[in-house]
C-alpha cells in the first residue's frame, strides 16, 4: 500500500517535468509556427478551422473548454479575431498569457482620417492579413518565442535554437517562393477579399480586389 | 485651496481613467409592419407600421476580472432596464464564474437571447409569458446571483452547469381580481427566492457538425403563505450542420413542462389544485451567405390536458445587407387555438444596429 502511495506521489511530482505547454492560437498558421518554435515542449492548437472565415468565428463552449487548459493564447490582433476575447473570457482561465502576434509588424492599409461603417469592411488598425508574408512569419515567430520564454524560462535555449532554425527555413523558403513565382511578376492577381496585400511585397505583382 | 486641489486631482484622474473604461455602446432599432386577420385584434385586416422598442446596449470590461453590461429598452412606456449585470469571469478560483444583477434567465437557449438575435421575426408563443409556461412579464428575466462552472469535457464535449438564486417575484401568482376586498389575501404579495439550475453540453461532431444539448429546472413559490410551489422543467437541443463553405443548416428545439400547486383563498381557507402544462417549439433554418430561410412549429397543451390547445406554423426569411448592421426579415404565421378560427399573420421588419457587435455565443 505504502509503495503504491509512493509511486503515486512520484508520478504526480514528475508530471510538471513532462507536461507540455498548451498554446491556443486563433488561426492554424499561428499554431503551426508555435509548434515549430515550441517543438517537444509545446502543444499548440488553433480555434478556427482551416475552412473558417477568420473574421467571424462562432463562439462555441468547446472552444472555451480547450482554452481553459491553455497557458498562452496567440491572437492575430488588428481587429481580426475579436471573437477570441469572448472565448478567452468565457474560458475563465486566470493563468493564461494573451499575446498579440501583430506586435512589431509593419501594418499595411492603415486608414487615415475618419473611419466609419460607410467604408464597409474596414479595419481601423490596418489590414490584419499580415501572416501571408513569409517575412512577417519570422516576426510572428519572434513574438511567440517571447511569449513562450515568459511562461517557460527553462526552455530558453531550446526555443532560441528552434527560432534560429525557423528564421533560416523562412529565409530559404522565401527565396524559393520568389524564384517559383518570378514568372508572375508584374502580372495582375484578382482576389475576392483584401487578404493578400502583404503578398506583392514578395512577388512584386499587382493586386486587384473584387 | 487644498480641497480645490484634491477635486482637481480627482477630475484629472477620472479623465485619464475614462480612456480605458468607456463601454462599447450599440443602439438597435427595428421598424416593423404587421398584418393580421385576428378578429380579436383592433388592427384586423389593417396593416400597422411602427418603430418597436429601441435597445441600447453598453458593455465594458470593468477591470481585469470582470465585465459589466447594461441593456436598456426604450419604447412607448419609457425607458426600462431590461438587463444590468456584472460578470466575474476571471476572479474566482477553480474556474467558477459569478454573474449578478438582472438578466435573462438561461432557461433553454431562446429565453436567454434577445429576440432581435433570433433567426426569425416572430417570438415563439411558447416563450410568451401570457402562455403561462415561463414566468415574467415579457421574458423570464429576474434579479439573480448565478454561479457557473465550465467542466473539462471528454473529447469535444463542453459541459457547463449554472445554479442561480433569483428574487422570485416572477413566480408569484397574481391576486385574483374576482376576490372581494374582505377576502383579499395580503400575504399573496410576499415573495420567496426562486432557483434555477441549467446545464448545457456543447459538442463537436467531426469538422462539420456542432451542437449543444441543455437541461433546465426552475423552482419558485407562487404563494408564500399557502406554501405552494411551481416547478418548470425544460430541455433544449441545437445542431448546426455546415453543408458547404457558406451554407449551414440549424436544427433547434425546446420543450417545457410546468407543474404547480395553486392555492385559492375564499376568505376563510385555501383550496388547492394541481396543474400542469407542456409545450415545445422546433425550427429549421437554412443560411447561405447573407440569406436565411426556415420554418418553425410549436404547440402547447391546455391545463391538465394532453390535447393540444394552441399550435402554430411559421415561415421566415431574412437578408443581411452587411453582417448584423442591417437585416430585412419576413415572417408569416398560421395559428390554431382550440375553439377559435385559425389566425393568419404576416410581418416585416428592418432591423438596424449601430456600434460594435460582439459575436453571438452558440
Q: Secondary-structure map with pairings?
A:
The complex is a heterodimer of chains A (210) and B (362).
Chain A: H1 2-18, E1 21-25, H2 28-38, E2 42-46, H3 61-68, E3 72-75, H4 83-90, E4 97-100, H5 134-151, H6 156-181, E5 188-191, H7 200-203, E6 206-209
Parallel strand pairs in A: 1-2, 1-3, 3-4, 5-6
Helix pairs in contact in A: 2-5, 3-4, 5-6
Chain B: H1 2-21, E1 24-36, E2 48-51, E3 54-63, E4 66-75, E5 78-88, E6 96-104, E7 141-150, E8 158-166, E9 194-205, E10 209-223, E11 228-244, E12 247-265, E13 270-288, E14 291-301, E15 308-320, E16 326-337, E17 343-354
Antiparallel strand pairs in B: 1-2, 1-3, 1-17, 3-4, 4-5, 5-6, 6-7, 7-8, 8-9, 9-10, 10-11, 11-12, 12-13, 13-14, 14-15, 15-16, 16-17
Task: Tell me what you see in this structure.
- The complex is a heterodimer of chains A (210) and B (362).
- Chain A is α/β, with parallel strands linked by helices and 210 residues long.
- Chain A has one domain (2-179): 3-Layer(aba) Sandwich (Rossmann fold), CATH 3.40.50.
- Helix content of chain A is 44%, strand content 12%.
- Chain A has helices spanning 2-18, 28-38, 61-68, 83-90, 134-151, 156-181, 200-203; strands spanning 21-25, 42-46, 72-75, 97-100, 188-191, 206-209.
- In chain A, the strands form two sheets. Chain A has a four-stranded parallel sheet with strand order 2-1-3-4, with helices on one face.
- In chain B, strands 1-3-4-5-6-7-8-9-10-11-12-13-14-15-16-17 form a 16-stranded antiparallel β-barrel.
- The longest helix of chain B is centred in the first third of the chain and has 20 residues, at 2-21.
- Chain B is globular.
- Chain B starts with a helix and ends in an 8-residue tail after the last strand.
- Chain B has one domain: Porin.
- Chain B contains one helix and 17 strands.
- Chain B has 362 residues and is mostly beta strands.
- Chain B has one helix at residues 2-21; strands at 24-36, 48-51, 54-63, 66-75, 78-88, 96-104, 141-150, 158-166, 194-205, 209-223, 228-244, 247-265, 270-288, 291-301, 308-320, 326-337, 343-354.
- Chain A binds chain B through residues 49, 51, 56-62, 64-65, 68-69, 82-83, 86, 89-94, 117, 120-121, and chain B through 67, 89-92, 95-97, 150-153, 156-158, 160, 200, 202-204, 207, 210, 212, 240, 245, 322-323, 325, 354, 358-362.
Amino acid at each position: 500500500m505504502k509503495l503504491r502511495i509512493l509511486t503515486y506521489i512520484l508520478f504526480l511530482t514528475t508530471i510538471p517535468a513532462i507536461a507540455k505547454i498548451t498554446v491556443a492560437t486563433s488561426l492554424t498558421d499561428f499554431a503551426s509556427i508555435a509548434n515549430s518554435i515550441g517543438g517537444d515542449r509545446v502543444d499548440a492548437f488553433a480555434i478556427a478551422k482551416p475552412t473558417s472565415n477568420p473574421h467571424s468565428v462562432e463562439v462555441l463552449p468547446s472552444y472555451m473548454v480547450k482554452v481553459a487548459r491553455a497557458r498562452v493564447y496567440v491572437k492575430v490582433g488588428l481587429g481580426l479575431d475579436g471573437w477570441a476575447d469572448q472565448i478567452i473570457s468565457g474560458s475563465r482561465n486566470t493563468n493564461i498569457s494573451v499575446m498579440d502576434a501583430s506586435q512589431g509588424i509593419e501594418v499595411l492599409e492603415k486608414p487615415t482620417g475618419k473611419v466609419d461603417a460607410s467604408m464597409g469592411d474596414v479595419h481601423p488598425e490596418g489590414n490584419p492579413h499580415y501572416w501571408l508574408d513569409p517575412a512577417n512569419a519570422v516576426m510572428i515567430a519572434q513574438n511567440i518565442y517571447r511569449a513562450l520564454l515568459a511562461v517557460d524560462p527553462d526552455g530558453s535555449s531550446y526555443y532560441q535554437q528552434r527560432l534560429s532554425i525557423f528564421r533560416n527555413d523562412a529565409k530559404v523558403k522565401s527565396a524559393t517562393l520568389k524564384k517559383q513565382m518570378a514568372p508572375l511578376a508584374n502580372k495582375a492577381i484578382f482576389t475576392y477579399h483584401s487578404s493578400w496585400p502583404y503578398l506583392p511585397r514578395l512577388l512584386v505583382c499587382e493586386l486587384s480586389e473584387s | 485651496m487644498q480641497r480645490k486641489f484634491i477635486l482637481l486631482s480627482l477630475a484629472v484622474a477620472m479623465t485619464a481613467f475614462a480612456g480605458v473604461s468607456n463601454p462599447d455602446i450599440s443602439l438597435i432599432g427595428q421598424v416593423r409592419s404587421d398584418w393580421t386577420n385576428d378578429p380579436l385584434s383592433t388592427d384586423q385586416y389593417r396593416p400597422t407600421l411602427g418603430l418597436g422598442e429601441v435597445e441600447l446596449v453598453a458593455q465594458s470590461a470593468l477591470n481585469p476580472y470582470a465585465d459589466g453590461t447594461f441593456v436598456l429598452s426604450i419604447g412607448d412606456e419609457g425607458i426600462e432596464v431590461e438587463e444590468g449585470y456584472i460578470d466575474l469571469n476571471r476572479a474566482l478560483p477553480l474556474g467558477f464564474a459569478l454573474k449578478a444583477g438582472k438578466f435573462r434567465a438561461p432557461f433553454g437557449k431562446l429565453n436567454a437571447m434577445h429576440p432581435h438575435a433570433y433567426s426569425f421575426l416572430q417570438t415563439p408563443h411558447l416563450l410568451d409569458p401570457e402562455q403561462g409556461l415561463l414566468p415574467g412579464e415579457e421574458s423570464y428575466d429576474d434579479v439573480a446571483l448565478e454561479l457557473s462552472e465550465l467542466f473539462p469535457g471528454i473529447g469535444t464535449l463542453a459541459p457547463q452547469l449554472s445554479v442561480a438564486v433569483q428574487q422570485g417575484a416572477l413566480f408569484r401568482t397574481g391576486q385574483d381580481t374576482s376576490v372581494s376586498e374582505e377576502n383579499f389575501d395580503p400575504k399573496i404579495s410576499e415573495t420567496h427566492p426562486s432557483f434555477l439550475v441549467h446545464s448545457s453540453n456543447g459538442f463537436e461532431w467531426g469538422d462539420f457538425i456542432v451542437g449543444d444539448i441543455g437541461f433546465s429546472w426552475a423552482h419558485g413559490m407562487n404563494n408564500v403563505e399557502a406554501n405552494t410551489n411551481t416547478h418548470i422543467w425544460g430541455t433544449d437541443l441545437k445542431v448546426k450542420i455546415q453543408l458547404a463553405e457558406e451554407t449551414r443548416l440549424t436544427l433547434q428545439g425546446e420543450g417545457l413542462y410546468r407543474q404547480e400547486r395553486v392555492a385559492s383563498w375564499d376568505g376563510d381557507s385555501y383550496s388547492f389544485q394541481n396543474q400542469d402544462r407542456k409545450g415545445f417549439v422546433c425550427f429549421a433554418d437554412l443560411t447561405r451567405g447573407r440569406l436565411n430561410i426556415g420554418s418553425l412549429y410549436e404547440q402547447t397543451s391546455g391545463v391538465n390536458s394532453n390535447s393540444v390547445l394552441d399550435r402554430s406554423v411559421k415561415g421566415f426569411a431574412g437578408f443581411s445587407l452587411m453582417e448584423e448592421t442591417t437585416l430585412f426579415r419576413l415572417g408569416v404565421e398560421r395559428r390554431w387555438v382550440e375553439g377559435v378560427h385559425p389566425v393568419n399573420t404576416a410581418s416585416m421588419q428592418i432591423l438596424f444596429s449601430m456600434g460594435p457587435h460582439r459575436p453571438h455565443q452558440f
